[in-house]
């Protein structure tokens, strides 16, 4: 079965960067399915951050995160990464990776378990 | 960006009741509308996609309908395990956007 396993919780100081990983397994053709990142602040709703095409590595980011977020992938380990820099207190949230479809605009059928990022001095 | 307006933000109903949540898009998204269920402490789970298609393994009491800008999500007979927050989400255009969520509780 499809599994997305994310890295563990992180505690960072304001101004630092965090890099979250998401290892995909249980399906063929890792490079065929777009991967998304979605975050959820405590007690709040879901916020889409961006998407990566594991095939060529192309990305599209939400304007809010442009310049601060970088999404990458390693096809040899079927892992995608999300790095967020210049962290501020408002970035404290649960970060999820989610697998989309063959096309950019498809539902998010599978989700990782989430990675909690705490930002505190 | 396409804005998704979901209502109500919370509701309380009895087991066996019919529960309805609405979602309105700020522009025509044809049928590119998905519904997710999120239980406390868990990742969201896709229930319905393309407005009305039930995800594999999801009980048939979950029903989606609508097109264009107005969509409805219905639980035909509320069960105790349905306690969760439900989100609509459009995938007509990037950035993907979500509704604010509806928290469903048992009365």
Chain pair sharing the greatest interface: A-B, 22 and 24 residues
The residue-averaged pLDDT of chain A reads 97
Question: Oligomerization state of this entry?
Answer: heterodimer
Specify the overall morphology of chain A: globular
| Element-level helix/strand string of chain A | EEEEEEEEEEE
Spans where pLDDT lies below 50 across 5 or more residues of chain A: none
Judging from the principal axes of the Cα atoms, what is the shape of chain B? globular
Supply the helix-strand structural class of chain B: mainly beta
Strand content of chain B: over 45%
Radius of gyration of chain A: 14 Å
By DSSP (H or I, 4+ residues per run), the number of helices of chain A equals 0
Biggest sheet layout of chain B: 7 strands, mixed
Measured as a percent range, the helix fraction of chain A is under 10%
Which structural class matches the secondary elements of chain A?
Answer: mainly beta
Largest pleated sheet of chain A:
7 strands, mixed
Q: Tell me the β content of chain A.
A: over 45%
Give Rg of chain B in angstroms: 13 Å
N-to-C series of helices and strands of chain B: EEEEEEEEEEE
How many distinct beta strands of chain B? 11
Layout of helices and strands:
The complex is a heterodimer of chains A (121) and B (107).
Chain A: E1 3-6, E2 10-12, E3 18-25, E4 35-40, E5 47-52, E6 59-61, E7 69-74, E8 79-84, E9 93-99, E10 110-111, E11 115-119
Parallel strand pairs in A: 2-11
Antiparallel strand pairs in A: 1-3, 3-8, 4-5, 4-9, 5-6, 7-8, 9-10, 9-11
Chain B: E1 4-7, E2 10-13, E3 19-25, E4 33-38, E5 45-49, E6 53-54, E7 62-67, E8 70-75, E9 84-90, E10 97-98, E11 102-106
Parallel strand pairs in B: 2-11
Antiparallel strand pairs in B: 1-3, 3-8, 4-5, 4-9, 5-6, 7-8, 9-10, 9-11
Overview of the structural elements:
- The complex is a heterodimer of chains A (121) and B (107).
- Chain A has 121 residues and is mainly β.
- Chain A has no helices and eleven strands.
- Chain A has strands at residues 3-6, 10-12, 18-25, 35-40, 47-52, 59-61, 69-74, 79-84, 93-99, 110-111, 115-119.
- The termini of chain A are far apart.
- In chain A, 38% of the residues are buried.
- The mean pLDDT of chain A is 97.
- In chain B, the strands form two sheets. In chain B, strands 2, 4, 5, 6, 9, 10 and 11 form a seven-stranded mixed sheet that branches. A four-stranded antiparallel sheet of chain B has the order 1-3-8-7, with no helix packed on it.
- Chain B contains no helices and eleven strands.
- Chain B is mostly beta strands.
- Chain B is 0% helix and 50% strand.
- The termini of chain B are far apart.
- In chain B, a hairpin with a 6-residue loop joins strand 4 (33-38) and strand 5 (45-49).
- Chain B has strands at 4-7, 10-13, 19-25, 33-38, 45-49, 53-54, 62-67, 70-75, 84-90, 97-98, 102-106.
- Chains A and B meet through strand 5 of A and strand 4, strand 5 and strand 10 of B.
